[in-house]
Predict the 3D structure of the following.
Amino acid sequence: MATLEIKDLHVEIEGKEILKGVTLTINTNEIHAIMGPNGTGKSTLASAIMGHPKYEVTSGSVTIDGEDVLEMEVDERALAGLFLAMQYPSEITGVTNADFLRSGMNARRDEGDEIGLMKFIRELDSKMEFLEMEEDMATRYLNEGFSGGEKKRNEILQLMMLKPKFAILDEIDSGLDIDALKVVSNGINEMRGEGFGCLIITHYQRLLNYITPDQVHVMMQGRVVKSGGPELAAKLESQGYDWIKEELGIEDETVHSEA
Ligand SMILES: Nc1ncnc2c1ncn2[C@@H]1O[C@H](COP(=O)(O)OP(=O)(O)O)[C@@H](O)[C@H]1O
Ligand SMILES: [Mg+2]
């Protein structure tokens, strides 16, 4: 078992404090969900854990099995087993999807132990079939011209090929129709197991109809303010967030448009 531990994490963007002490522990074999209104710092949490240069960690810690993640370069974080599916995946012209995946897989293996081309292709084919992806998606440039849904499916393809220890999936359900939502959920459920822990960030409960999280956390104003089981997500769906604000005596803040 491995453990990703986030302790009292404070993060600033351009001098403004966005995360005000986030504490969260995720073990492999667990799926956690973070829900919360727009602009509360969910994506900031994901980016800070992955080491995005714009996000300055001012205090707190992030560790995997006690190893300091914040000391690591971005590529070292990936090698340590972290994976981020971004809310808005970037397009990379000139690098095909297949090449990107193969080099990512090989970077995680020892020198001399690179994955053979045929083995890679077989694995890629089977995962793409599982995710009901068009064959030409492998040879197209990474995310270039991909529809919103194709990008999200492709993030799950990366997840299934790279097999990280811990995945953070930021709004992986946004912009998906119901069929794509099922495919994406199947992919995540397929990953569930001994060597895999997952943090699903979403502001809709509907994804959690297909993936039953072990724990649900509510994030507001830069903090995790409440944690519970799957029933918490259902309650948020039916009652919104106001009851939590009342319960905790949180004052209303400006609600940001899609952040
Ligand atoms: N790159 C950035 N530059 C400036 N402000 C940012 C940046 N990213 C996020 N923010 C601000 O940080 C706050 C939290 O944003 P975000 O983490 O994206 O929220 P969420 O994902 O919960 O909707 C928002 O007020 C947002 O405007
Ligand atoms: Mg976000």
Summary: The chain has a mean pLDDT of 93. The CA atoms of residues 101 and 158 lie 7 Å apart.
